């Protein structure tokens, strides 16, 4: 099956059940508001959330598509709405920034959980054959982006 069809036809069911069982600070599916829009929503405009760009999973062709100007209008709307709350502490290309604003239809779950529950969550999702990515930095509560999938490569940093 084509990777795009596989991602779009996969639900976040297993990940969400495990997260609810363990107890999380916040959880949302990454859709039209993009990763940065949903992070802003989760922060309730009360918290600073730090992520490491190099840890964020995305389909390897996304940068190439963005470099050709294939960026949904909703992504530009997300950028306009959220950019006043975003600080890039290292230089990212326009395409890399737009990936973080990307208006998605099936972007996995974004989960914030206390660090003491992160290991338990990782064990549960590993058993369920779910891919998870720790995208937070430093000593902040764990911030995870999760996909219910069998193993396949989402990231290729050799573009």
Descriptive notes:
The chain has 159 residues and is of the alpha+beta class. The protein has a single domain (3-147), classed as PurM-like C-terminal domain (Phosphoribosyl-aminoimidazole Synthetase, Chain A, domain 2), CATH 3.90.650. It contains 7 helices and 4 strands. The protein has helices spanning 3-8, 13-22, 34-43, 62-67, 73-82, 94-101, 115-127, and strands at 26-29, 109-113, 131-134, 142-147. It has a 4-stranded antiparallel sheet, with helices on both faces.
**Helix fraction bin:** 25-40%
* Low-pLDDT stretches: 147-159
Biggest β-sheet description: 4 strands, antiparallel
E-strand count: 4
Mean pLDDT across the residues is 80
Radius of gyration: 15 Å
Order of helices and strands: HHEHHHHEHEE
Strand content: 5-15%
- Straight-line N-to-C gap: 23 Å
Helical stretch count?
7
| Top CATH class | Alpha Beta
CATH superfamily membership = PurM-like C-terminal domain
């Amino acid at each position: 099956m084509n990777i795009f069809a596989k991602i779009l036809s996969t639900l976040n069911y297993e990940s969400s059940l495990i997260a609810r069982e363990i107890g999380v600070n916040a959880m949302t599916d990454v859709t039209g508001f993009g990763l940065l829009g949903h992070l802003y929503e989760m922060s309730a405009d009360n918290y600073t959330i730090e992520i490491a760009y190099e840890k964020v999973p995305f389909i390897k062709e996304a940068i190439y598509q963005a470099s050709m100007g294939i960026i949904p209008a909703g992504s530009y709307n997300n950028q306009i709405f959220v950019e006043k709350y975003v600080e890039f502490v290292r230089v990212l290309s326009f395409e890399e920034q737009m990936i973080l604003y990307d208006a998605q239809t099936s972007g996995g779950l974004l989960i914030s959980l206390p660090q003491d529950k992160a290991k338990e969550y990782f064990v549960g999702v590993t058993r369920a054959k779910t891919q998870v990515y720790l995208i937070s930095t430093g000593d902040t509560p764990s911030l995870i982006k999760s996909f219910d999938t069998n193993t396949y490569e989402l990231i290729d940093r050799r573009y």
